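Now for our target.
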Amino acid sequence: MIKEDLLVPLVGVVVAAVIAGVVSLVVAILAKDQKTSEFRQSWIDALREDVAKLAGHWFIVTSAASDHREVRGDATDFLMSQHDYLIQIEICINRIILRLNPKEHVVLLTMLNQLGSVMLLPQKQKDSAMHEIVIESQGILKAEWTRVKRGEWSFRLLKWGSSAAVLIAAVAGYCIYRTMPA
C-alpha cells in the first residue's frame, strides 16, 4: 500500500504526464492540419492558374482561327502555325484533369473531355463552352476555399471539443467554488 504523503506527488506526476501528452497530441493535429490547408491552398492556386491559361490560349486561338476562316475560307494552315498554343492548350487541359477528383468533379471533367469536339462549332459556341468551364471551375475553387477556411475535420473536432472541455471545466470550477464553506 502506498503512503498518503507519496500519493499526492504521484498523482501530480501522472496528471502532468497526461497534460503533456494531450498538448503534444493537439500540437501534432494542428501542425498536420495546417500543412494540409497549405497543400489545399497550393492546389487552388495551381488550378486557378491552369484554368486561366487554358481560357486565355483557347480564346486567342479560336477567335484568331475563326477570323482566319472568314478571310481565307480555311483555318487549317493557321492552326498548324499555332502549334505552340495548341500544345499549351493540351497541357493545361491535362494538368487540370490530373488535379481533379473523378468522383467529385465529374461535370468539369466531362466538359474538358468534350472540348476537342467543340472546335468544329461556331465561335460563339466555342466561347460559351470555355465560359462554362471557367464558371464550373469557379464553383470548385469556391468550395475548396471554403474547406480551407473551415479547416480540416480533425481541426474542427479539436476546436469544438476544446471549447466544450473549457466550458465544462468552468462550470465544474464554479460548482466546486459554490459548495466550498465560507
Q: What stands out?
A: The mean pLDDT is 82.
